[in-house]
Amino acid sequence: MDGPPPPSPRRRLEPEARREQILDAAVAHFAEVGLGGTTRDLARRAGVTQALVYQYFGSKAELTEAVFARVYLDRLDPRWVDAIRDRATPIEARLRAFYAAYTRAIFTYEWMRIFMWAGLAGEVLNRRYLDHVGERLLAPLREEIAASPGLAPPSMEDMWNLHGGIVYIGIRRFIYHLPTPEDPAPAIAAAVARFLAGLRPAA
Known about the structure:
Blueprint: H1 15-33, H2 39-46, H3 50-56, H4 60-71, H5 79-84, H6 91-106, H7 109-120, H8 124-146, H9 156-174, H10 185-197
Helix pairs in contact: 1-2, 1-4, 1-7, 6-10, 8-9
């Protein structure tokens, strides 16, 4: 009598490819359930054993660090700062270009979900990322705005208000599932224009 077919053997992958497979699964898993998700459930999702997960990532903390690097740090382009500081381009155009590139990098299901889950859990990873954004991106933007003729120097709180308002488009889309513009460029341009208008002296 024929029985069910035997399970397919797990496909053998080179170590780096296997590590990437587990990391991809971890990003998807934590986006759905939060960083509190177990490595046992992750292993089931990835089609590997829990022991194999720990063969490639010595601890859950190490795995979480790898997810942090993949989702957050790897998406930050170091060339953005050079473009921010290019004074041959008007400051308004530089702000629009930066936020167009930044939103293309972060407006994804995984980025938004993991960021919100980690924030709710009080994860230090979020604070590290926000410190990075503040020091490496918003501070240079603030300096360039302050150096632009006819504009009052904004505070860092002003910069975070602009930044948060633009990022909120992605939060509405991926967290609250509300309608958002398919192309955020016009909304970004309007937000930047309003922001700079508020820094100009009253007529």
